[in-house]
Design brief:
heterotrimer; A alpha/beta; B alpha/beta; C alpha/beta; A: alpha/beta; Urease, subunit C, domain 1; TIM Barrel; 2 domains; eight-stranded mixed β-sheet; eight-stranded parallel β-sheet; B: alpha/beta; Rossmann fold; three-stranded antiparallel β-sheet; 3 helices; 23% helix; 31% strand
Chain lengths: 433, 185, 313
């Protein structure tokens, strides 16, 4: 684990510390050996004579704790033509992330300790972000036999889940969740009953008008209800991944009120876009869960604000252009997103649809809480996992020029307000714009 | 036809002159035809009205069996896709086989000859006439194709920036006239 | 400024102005006459190459377009999925780019994926005519349906038109809805609830889950084909039940106006959505639809070629 030995300061910036709750204040931060040593308001004091300090000028920028992504696909092993841990890590660092959780649906699937160890090593080798592999619940994700969850936990996995697959047998899922709870793991579940799902679009006016195969919100609602019930039954911490509907939000709010141990996430695509984006059959807008109605989008924003939804995930899923330059029905599903999450969310802040504090909570604080990671606040003694953000810069997204190997994003050609300019992982700069 | 921005320059035929010209045409066609049977094909749209007038006049001079047809030549025009004004396809109504018939093609104004060329192309698809002759109310010269009228009611010299319009009451005008207009740019 | 006398592409009727739709129908009048001549040919598309790019198979629509193109003196090329490189895994885009080597001016395309025609129109420099893209649109079918209605009834404005059947999966229904609403007709939809798409009532149409209220007092009844392929999808229990409850028979037809037209896009399932008596009755204009189809497709090809010709200037 590489740390920066030298004393480094970031000065003249706006510090946004989620712990203090309020607005950003002008100040400075010092860190050494990977740990924050001092935080101050206003002008940084002049370094004492003989002290070797590197000062980084954060004029015009906001310093926040770095981001943690709980659901991404770096396509390694098996699909390296789309992305690798190395290229994905670079993209993540450019997005302000210092930790990323990887979906198990690679090839081979993350279902044994050796793949867990492989990915941890790849992460160390790339040396950009901490990699947290999500182990599969069942062998080959077929929902028949449990995977070696205990062994994967011993190898370092903290999370398990079945990727984007729905575990068909409810009784089997119950046993997997109980067993995972044994090892202190968080179970991550996506939410769509496949027998109701006829296609990748939202069943609504757009799908009717465009003749697109679609899925009603009830497919999510039924799955969320099932998972909440099993969370209650097993007591295992359960995370509902990528909620996309007002119906899902309603159930989660109710479950929270009853004290059930669940958390939830939403993807940037469902926060920023609705079903209208599918109108022109642009395969770049083909994502899962589907882009739903505007009422759903507004419900998701409100749920994120009031904490019903805890975190935002990137749902990073890069594809080569050949997968998207085809008819909508045949196109691959997913978008390359990890470097854009802050820009997308900050754009929503600029539009008045989200608060900045909510964004930092959703990207930095809450994910660490769910995963029991240190940090997420800017105070002495905390790890120097930081991101310097430019909240004003407006940049046009260009799919072909993403840091990620993937070129697929529904935001291609749109202007986003705000972007990370520097990322620090344990005091070491992993990204500079 | 360009309807906008034209000013009237001179009236070359009034109602009386039109009537005389039509009977004169009928008479000359009678003199130049052995048979009593003839087919009048009017070219949409002006030629159809003139042909209807001619039909009556020809019955008066002894033609017994006149079949009448309308021909729209839009689809045969050589400028069908490039004309600034896109002409609308009108109806063609020729319900008889032209094979062996004595056809008189009728138009209101003979100008470049391109309309007649298109009409001849179209006629070919309706059979093989024994003969085809051309009757027009006005020949205004300025030919671009080697076409001539067998029977012309009136021949005038005109300039390229002028248009010649045949205006008949059945077309909605107050009285029959043939007018030379000058195009304003 | 949209020129109502030319068409850049014909991808769907949605968004076409009333003037343009009227222009297409008016042009079709002139072209219908051509089909009555002894020599059924006129020269405007001489030298124009029309490719019939049918990824989803269809004999009748393809032949209709082929006849239309040939009657305009165009050269036609046939390209169908089974004999094509698509079955060997070549993408649609690559296939289309290879087609362009033959320099087609117009591509008439049928595909099972919605949006496929639009997809090509954004990438290929030819005029694209959509002959059906999945359940989304089939503009020439709706145009020939409207032509038939207008010819028989003298107008489209205010006509009460009932469309009955599998609305959810029907491109014929969708295109007719857009076309008829544009032209001021009133549309009633009917079908089993399993075949009515969600929020279809956001269009200004009336929606019924039984055929009787939709047919009552109608000027036109259009029966949609029940696709056998749908049978395994839990949409309705059997042909027999569908025929009894939703099929058009002489008894139900009496609910409509006495001179109500009976239409069907074909091919018919006699005895399922329509009884043989009704299909062959004097009120049925099903064969006229086919005849009018050629005229309407001639008008569409003509107007697309005209746009290409003008844009070459």
């Amino acid at each position: 684990m590489m740390v920066t030995v030298m004393r480094t300061r970031i000065v003249n910036c706006q510090i946004f510390d989620p712990a203090t709750g309020g607005d950003a204040f002008p100040g400075w931060v010092e860190f050494e050996n990977g740990v924050i040593t001092a935080v101050g308001k206003g002008q940084a004091p002049a370094p004492s004579a003989g002290a070797e300090i590197t000062d980084i000028d954060g004029q015009g920028f906001t310093l926040a704790p770095s981001f943690v992504d709980m659901y991404a696909n770096f396509c390694e092993p098996g699909y390296e033509y789309r992305e690798t841990v190395a290229s994905g890590s670079r993209a993540a660092a450019s997005g302000g992330y210092t930790a990323v959780c990887l979906r198990p649906d690679t090839d081979p699937i993350i279902q044994r300790s050796d793949v867990v160890r492989f990915l941890l090593e790849r992460g160390v080798f790339a040396n950009m972000v901490d990699i947290f592999p999500i182990g599969a619940l069942s062998m080959n994700m077929e929902g028949q036999t449990m995977a070696e969850i205990g062994e994967m936990a011993a190898a370092g996995a903290r999370l398990v889940g079945e990727g984007n697959t729905f575990v068909k047998r409810t009784g089997f899922l119950r046993r997997c969740m109980e067993y995972a709870g044994n090892f202190g793991l968080v179970v991550m579940l996506t939410n769509e009953d496949p027998s109701l799902a006829e296609g990748p679009c939202h069943e609504g006016f757009m799908s009717t008008s465009r003749g697109l195969k679609c899925t009603p919100v009830q497919a999510e609602e039924i799955a969320v209800a099932r998972h909440i019930a099993l969370a209650e039954l097993t007591g295992t911490p359960t995370h509902l991944v990528k909620i996309s509907s007002a119906a899902g939000v309603r159930l989660i709010r109710d479950a929270r009120a009853r004290g059930i141990n669940i958390t939830a996430s939403v993807s940037i695509h469902n926060l920023a876009l609705n079903e209208d984006a599918n109108a022109g059959y642009d395969a770049m807008t083909k994502v899962w869960p589907p882009l739903r109605a505007e009422e759903d989008r507004l419900a998701l924003l409100a749920a994120l604000e009031d904490g019903t939804i805890d975190i935002v995930v990137s749902d990073h899923d890069p594809h080569v252009i050949e997968g998207k330059e085809v008819e909508f029905d045949l196109a691959t599903v997913g978008a390359s997103s990890i470097e854009l999450t802050f820009g997308v969310l900050n754009t929503l802040v600029e539009r008045g649809e989200l608060k900045f504090a909510t964004v930092i909570r959703a990207l930095a604080t809450a994910p660490r809480k769910i995963m029991h990671l240190d940090g997420g606040v800017i105070s002495a003694g905390m790890p120097a996992d930081l991101v310097l953000l430019d909240r004003k810069a407006v940049r046009k997204v260009c799919g072909a020029e993403l840091v990620s190997q993937g070129v697929n994003t529904p935001f291609d050609g749109t202007d986003l307000a705000g972007c990370p300019v520097m990322t620090f992982r344990r005091g070491r700069m992993t990204f500079a714009a | 036809m360009g309807e906008t921005n034209k000013i009237e320059k001179r009236v070359i035929m009034d109602a009386r002159a039109v009537e005389l010209a039509v009977s004169d045409l009928a008479g000359r066609i009678r003199a130049a035809s052995d048979e009593d049977q003839v087919c009048l094909i009017g070219i949409q749209t002006g030629g159809v009205y003139v042909a209807q007038r001619l039909h009556k006049a020809m019955e008066a001079v002894g033609f017994k069996d006149i079949c009448f047809g309308r021909l729209d030549i839009t689809l045969y025009r050589d400028d069908i896709f490039t004309a600034l004004q896109q002409p609308v396809v009108r109806s063609t109504d020729i319900r008889f086989d032209l094979t062996g018939k004595n056809v008189i093609l009728v138009d209101d104004v003979l100008y470049t000859g391109r309309t007649i060329r298109a009409a001849l192309d179209a006629l070919v698809d309706f059979g093989r006439p024994r003969r085809v002759r051309l009757a027009v109310l006005v020949d205004r010269g300025l030919r671009e194709y080697p076409i001539q009228a067998d029977f012309a009611g009136r021949t005038v010299n005109t300039d390229a920036n002028e248009t010649v319009q045949v205006e008949l009451v059945e077309m909605g005008f107050e009285r029959d006239r043939v007018v030379v207009y000058e195009r304003q740019s | 400024m949209e020129n109502p006398n030319t068409l850049n592409h014909l991808l769907a009727l949605e968004g076409l102005s009333k003037e343009t739709v009227t222009s297409i129908l008016d042009h079709a009048v002139g072209f219908k006459e051509v089909s009555k001549r002894r020599i059924k040919k006129v020269p405007p598309l001489r030298g124009v190459t029309v490719v019939l790019f049918f990824i989803e198979n269809s004999t009748r629509t393809r032949i209709s377009f082929e006849v239309a193109a040939k009657r305009l003196s165009a050269d036609t090329l046939n390209f169908s999925a089974s004999t094509s490189s698509l079955s060997k895994g070549e993408t649609l885009l690559d296939t289309a780019k290879n087609l362009m080597a033959m320099q087609p001016d117009i591509i008439v395309m049928r595909h099972f994926a919605p949006g496929a025609a639009k997809f090509l129109s954004e990438r290929i420099p030819a005029g694209i005519v959509n002959a059906g893209d999945g359940p989304h649109a089939h503009p020439t079918q709706a145009l020939l349906d409207m032509y038939t209605m207008r010819e028989r009834k003298g107008r489209l404005e205010g006509l009460e038109v009932a469309i009955v059947g599998d609305i959810a999966h029907s491109r014929v229904a969708r295109s007719n809805i857009h076309g008829l609403l544009t032209m001021g007709a009133k549309v009633r939809l009917a079908g089993p609830r399993t075949m009515l798409p969600t929020m279809i009532d956001r269009f200004p149409v009336s929606v019924h889950d039984r055929i009787e209220p939709a047919i009552e007092g109608a000027d036109v009844v259009m029966m949609l084909r029940i696709q056998k392929e749908r049978m395994g999808k839990d949409l309705f229990p059997s042909d027999r039940e569908y025929a009894r409850v939703f099929g058009l028979d002489s008894q139900k037809l009496k609910l409509a106006k006495p001179d109500c037209l009976v239409m069907h896009p074909g091919p018919m399932n006699r005895g399922v959505e329509i009884t043989p008596e009704v299909a062959d009755s004097t009120q049925s204009v099903i064969l006229e639809q086919v005849e009018n189809g050629v005229a309407v497709r001639m008008a569409v090809l003509f107007m697309v070629a005209r746009h290409l010709g003008v844009s070459e200037e």
